[in-house]
Design a protein that fits this description.
Radius of gyration: 21 Å
CATH class of the largest domain: Alpha Beta
Strand order of the largest sheet: 8-7-11-12-13-17-18
Strand content: 15-25%
CATH topology of the largest domain: Rossmann fold
CATH superfamily of the largest domain: Response regulator
Structural class: alpha/beta
Oligomer: single chain
Distance between the termini: 40 Å
Largest sheet: 7 strands, mixed
């Protein structure tokens, strides 16, 4: 049981930042420790737009003038804990490459999850390609960002790890486009704050690291709006929350129409909160409140007690009829297995990562992309790469999560 929950926690951690076989020729280390590279054949899976810095923002040799840009996809496929997540990203990346191959040659570079292993893989890849996509782990991104080996355009797939919670200074050639739980929390503030209904927010979290990050991001953004946040840490045992704390909270806020609750929790924990607080209290959260993949959703699993709960998630899970979503094959799972929402998000991240890399390979500097992970904006200037993702508002209706057209 503990092994299963450990895997769930790790997937949450990567997403807050998800298996598919991708028939890519992956590369490991040769006997002398040097990485070897092969072009990745197209796989059975899998759309497009983003930008490069001004001409003087990269060294003259940062991108080749050749008609084909060489892209390395650097993933911890040899990691015991992150291999499944890495495989989902690879599958999405290769799905997008299969659809739009022109001008891009892809090699997959395998690493473990130790920072030094990631750094060695990155250095070997950067020496042979024009663009690097990766790493996937927070510690790996931090190791690359703080090293002196980064001299090629690099698309990091998660935010870097930070010891003190402060923003890490990034090299101007590094674009971070991971699925950040902190960014989602800040967007929830903008969404909820725009209504003008609430002045105070109770921010619920456990001791889980990703939940602390989301709660802190919400708290700081709520303060910026001049409103009052109150952090509430709830003890949890095997995923179950302390009911006494929630009952006490209910007494504090019952009947107060100027108060909302932000749940920096997972879906099961949020259901516990809803069951105790009731449906009269406004409840907001991140994508982690949505465990559903439409392919598997059924009446027996509907969470009607969550009706009215608002959250943010990505078009890939919310809008199957979205023009960008429709053109890619769905993530394939083994017979008898169910789709996993976190792995689906990482598969979608792989798709959009390729689309961004494709635009960078075309030496675009500013662009917007209606992506499968949200509306993306990319801008490079002389000092920094700027990335913004706008997630899709959603709400629980009839026990399932559905897209909501705008803030309410």
């Amino acid at each position: 049981m503990w092994k299963r929950w450990a895997k769930v926690i790790l997937l949450n951690s990567v997403c807050s930042g998800l298996c598919l076989s991708a028939g890519a020729n992956t590369t490991g280390a040769d006997s002398d420790g040097a990485a070897s590279f092969d072009s990745a054949p197209i796989v059975r899976t899998a759309q497009n737009d983003l930008a490069l810095p001004p001409a003087d923002a990269f060294p003259a040799n940062a991108l080749t003038a050749a008609p084909v840009a060489r892209v390395a996809l650097l993933l911890p496929l040899r990691s015991d804990t992150l291999a499944e997540a890495a495989a989902a990203v690879r599958a999405g990346f290769m799905a997008a490459h299969e659809r739009e191959q022109d001008g891009v040659e892809v090699s997959v570079v395998e690493t473990g999850d130790a920072p030094q292993d990631v750094l060695a893989g990155y250095a070997a890849a950067a020496a042979q390609v024009d663009i690097v996509v990766g790493p996937l782990s927070r510690t790996g991104v931090a190791a690359v960002a703080q090293s002196d080996v980064l001299d090629k355009p690099t698309i990091a797939l998660t935010p870097p790890d930070s010891q003190d919670g402060e923003e890490v200074a990034l090299p101007r050639q590094m674009l971070v486009m991971g699925l950040s739980i902190e960014d989602e929390a800040r967007q929830v503030v903008s969404w909820a704050g725009a209504s003008g209904k609430w002045s105070k927010a109770y921010v619920l979290h456990t001791q889980a690291a990703w939940q602390r990050r989301a709660a802190r991001a919400f708290e700081m953004q709520w303060l910026k709006l001049g409103m009052e946040p109150e952090m509430v840490e709830v003890a949890a045992n095997d995923g179950f929350l302390n009911g006494r704390t929630l009952l006490q909270l209910k007494k504090q806020i019952q009947g107060d129409k100027s108060t909302l609750v932000f749940a920096a929790l997972d879906a099961r924990q949020a259901r516990q909160v809803r069951a105790i607080l009731g449906n009269d209290i406004a409840l907001y959260g991140t994508s982690q409140l949505n465990p559903f993949v439409r392919a598997d959703a059924n009446d027996a699993e509907r969470s009607v007690e969550m009706n009215g709960t608002r959250l943010l998630d990505i078009p890939w899970l919310l809008q199957p009829d979205h023009p960008a979503v429709m053109v890619y094959p769905r993530l394939v799972v083994d017979p008898g297995h169910r789709h996993n929402a976190d792995l689906e998000r990482l598969y979608a991240l792989g798709i959009d990562a390729y689309r961004v890399a494709h635009e960078i390979a075309a030496q675009h500097r500013d662009f917007q992309l209606d992506g499968v992970t949200g509306k993306l904006k990319v801008h490079f200037d002389k000092t920094k790469a700027h990335f913004e993702r706008s997630a899709q508002p959603a709400v629980y209706r009839d026990g399932l999560v559905v897209s909501e057209g705008g803030a309410q």
